[in-house]
Design brief:
Layout: E1 2-6, H1 12-22, H2 37-48, E2 52-59, E3 62-72, H3 76-79, E4 81-90, H4 99-113, E5 116-121, H5 128-136
Parallel strand pairs: 4-5
Antiparallel strand pairs: 1-2, 2-3, 3-4
């Protein structure tokens, strides 16, 4: 069974390494540099914002996954709040044990607790296994996503 806690600075090498290892495009992220300013600044900004959480999932006290939650207020649907889920990753040695589903169930419970009416996420088009995973959890492919890097 997983436990969840907010990420600390000491978790940054684990988080950056876990996410970088799973990326399908090169981002230049390096776990060896994860304690440098930009990563620490980003973590501080997330921690200071009550609508953001960067979370570490642990099993028996050891980190095995990470997930970022962003709670978004909206005007439409009668002011409905949404939870945006990003950076969902489980350590490769721990995959296939149901931990990803447990992590997502926890995130959905957090959304309900905050009064959200929707949970949304994006997934790289190349990550077909991830798409099947989210569909098994009840997520529907409802929109096309677009990004503009600056």
């Amino acid at each position: 069974m997983l436990s969840f806690r907010d990420a600390k600075e000491a978790d940054l090498p684990f988080i950056v390494g876990l996410v970088a290892a799973a990326l399908v495009v090169e981002t230049g992220d390096d776990p060896e540099r994860a304690l440098e300013g930009p990563y620490r600044d980003a973590l501080a900004a997330i921690a200071a914002d009550p609508n953001n959480r960067l979370v570490v999932a642990e099993c028996d006290g050891e980190p095995v996954g990470t997930i970022q939650l962003t709670f978004i207020p909206g005007i439409m649907r009668r002011g409905m709040w949404r939870l945006l889920v990003e950076q969902v990753h489980i350590a490769s040695a721990e995959r296939g044990k149901g931990l990803g589903a447990e992590m997502m169930a926890w995130a959905i419970a957090e959304a309900r607790a905050r009064g959200c009416g929707m949970v949304q996420l994006t997934s790289n088009k190349q990550r077909r296994d991830a798409h099947r995973f989210y569909e098994r959890l009840g997520f529907e492919r409802s929109h096309e996503g677009f990004k503009l890097y600056l």
